[in-house]
Amino acid sequence: MSDWVKGRVAAKQQWAEGLYSMRFEATLEPFSAGQYIKVAMDIDGERVGRPYSLVNPPGQAEPEIYFNAIPEGPLTPRLSDLEPGDTVWLSARASGIFTLDTVQPAKTLWLLATGTALGVYLSILRTATPWEQFERVVLVHGVRQPSDLTYGDTLAEIVAHHGERFTFIPAISRAEAPDALYGRITDLLVSGTLEARAGATITPEDSHVMLCGNSAMIKESKAILESRGLERHRRHAPGQYTTEQYH
Ligand SMILES: Cc1cc2nc3c(=O)[nH]c(=O)nc-3n(C[C@H](O)[C@H](O)[C@H](O)COP(=O)(O)OP(=O)(O)OC[C@H]3O[C@@H](n4cnc5c(N)ncnc54)[C@H](O)[C@@H]3O)c2cc1C
Ligand SMILES: NC(=O)c1ccc[n+]([C@@H]2O[C@H](COP(=O)([O-])OP(=O)(O)OC[C@H]3O[C@@H](n4cnc5c(N)ncnc54)[C@H](OP(=O)(O)O)[C@@H]3O)[C@@H](O)[C@H]2O)c1
Q1: Atom 44 of ligand 2 has which residue's CA nearest to it?
Q2: How far is the C-alpha of 89 from the C-alpha of 143, rounded, in Å?
Q3: Signal sequence: where (predicted)?
Q4: What is the pLDDT of residues 167-189, one digit of tens each?
């Protein structure tokens, strides 16, 4: 069971309708970039907790999460109603193996996200590890609408630190927008459009791919990657892709 600590909402940002990030005042145990905590509220006498990836890098004081309000969901409509000063429960210890800890160094790290899965990569990218293990990092954010493209300032900071070693590619599936690719990540992989935009090719020899977010995107992307010879990474059997499913 989770070892809960009380936290206070320190800041809430609404990025678009139903799309939020939240920072908490709370003292948690040290974690590795890529891990998640549980956030809970007591609802009708029951503690309702859900996992959320940490957006902040290790060592940064306030834990931060990025989430959307699912109208029919038990937790998120209530979570998104909280204001600074309100209390929540947080698991003291982070969990999860969606980290770079055991991944083999390679030429290019590909980070593929749908929706709020962007957040986990913002934690990883603000540590030294990807920049020590890979020559280049390509981050792809797949969203429905232009208003779902968020955290522009944080992405600009990463560009400022790492220059041409970092490529950010927004992909919008339900509208066309300047500078963004049009379509789903999976279709853009199959057509070669994604790699053409990145100026790099995904191969088992020189790539590691992380997939996070929508389970259907992950399932279809896995099939595409496996058809190109990439294998799932395991701690004791190194491969070229790792996954974390949110829904
Ligand atoms: C390891 C892990 C890490 C996660 N990290 C995050 C995170 O950083 N940010 C985040 O927003 N969610 C994350 N999730 C999902 C999160 O835990 C909740 O499920 C989500 O916030 C909805 O909670 P809920 O109680 O309102 O509804 P739930 O009862 O949990 O879900 C209701 C329905 O909403 C859909 N759904 C759930 N999550 C999402 C989502 N993120 N986007 C779109 N549809 C969704 C599913 O179809 C689900 O059946 C993570 C899940 C896991 C397993
Ligand atoms: N702004 C927000 O993010 C927001 C705000 C309020 C509420 N919500 C709620 O959150 C839920 C959806 O959130 P979301 O838009 O972040 O997540 P999502 O439905 O997972 O969509 C994110 C991206 O993943 C794509 N995708 C879906 N299935 C795929 C597949 N099989 N292969 C490849 N790509 C795939 C989507 O493309 P398609 O467009 O083709 O599906 C979209 O580009 C809904 O319940 C919504 O009501 C979201």
Answers
A1: 70
A2: 29
A3: none
A4: 999 999 999 999 999 999 999 99
Atom from ligand 1 closest to the CA of residue 246: 51
Q: Residues with Cβ within 6 A of ligand 2?
A: 16-19, 68-70, 114-116, 142-144, 148, 173-174, 184-186, 213-214, 216-217, 220
| Parallel, antiparallel or unpaired: strands 134-143 and 106-114 | parallel
What separation in Å is there between the alpha carbon of 128 and the centre of ligand 2? 30
Segment 147-166, tens digit of pLDDT: 999 999 999 999 999 999 99
Ligand nearest to the CA of 175: 2
Token output for 3? 């070892």
Report the separation in Å between the CA atom of 115 and the middle of ligand 2, taken as the mean of its atom positions.
6
**Which atom of ligand 1 lies closest to the CA of 74?**
25
The residue among 62, 91, 120 that closes a domain is 91
Could you tell me whether strands 106-114 and 19-25 are parallel, antiparallel, or unpaired per DSSP bridges? unpaired
The sign of the dihedral angle between the CA atoms of 209, 215, 217, 223 is positive
Domain carrying residue 212: 106-245
Ligand 1 atom at shortest distance from the alpha carbon of 65: 8
Evaluated on CA atoms 241, 65, 145, 137, the torsion sign reads negative
